[in-house]
Amino acid sequence: MTTLTVDRAPAIAMTVSSDASASATPAEPAARPDTVVVAPGDTLWHIAQRALPSDAGAADIASAWPAWYASNAEVIGDDPDLLQPGQVLHAPTTTSTDGAS
């Protein structure tokens, strides 16, 4: 029996499979590891924070959350502060523009 503990990221839905045939439904968005299903109380700030390294500061998060909005504006709508539980968001291809590694 394997136990997986996720720290600081209860609203990030990740599916990990060692069987390549397990992803037989490619249209299922929650099966992608770069997919986040919005939970009650989630904000883009917190979603971006969970996606960044644990030592990311407020400036890093402030730079990252707009990329999450830009990548998901069609799902979120006109107000980036109004996320609905159950919305499926996709991680931006980049979350920082400062060139830090």
**What is the number of helical segments per DSSP (H or I, 4+ residues)?**
2
Overall geometry comes to: globular
Q: State the share of residues found in helices, binned by percent.
A: 25-40%
Largest sheet: 2 strands, antiparallel
Order of helices and strands: EHHE
In whole angstroms, the N-to-C terminal distance is 36 Å
Radius of gyration, in angstroms, nearest whole number:
14 Å
Task: Going across the biggest sheet, name each strand in turn.
Answer: 1-2
Strand content: 5-15%
Average of pLDDT: 75
Q: Given the helix and strand composition, which structural class is it?
A: mainly alpha
Low-pLDDT segments? 1-31
Topology, number of strands: 2
Lay out the secondary structure.
Blueprint: E1 35-37, H1 44-51, H2 58-76, E2 88-90
Antiparallel strand pairs: 1-2
Helix pairs in contact: 1-2
Can you tell me about this structure?
The protein is mainly alpha-helical and 101 residues long. The protein has a domain at 43-77 and 85-92. Helix content is 27%, strand content 6%. Strands 1-2 form a two-stranded antiparallel ribbon. The N and C termini lie far apart (36 Å).
Question: What would you say about this model in short?
Answer:
This protein is mainly alpha-helical. It is 27% helix and 6% strand.
Notable characteristics:
2 strands; mainly alpha; disordered N terminus; two-stranded antiparallel sheet; 101 residues; 27% helix
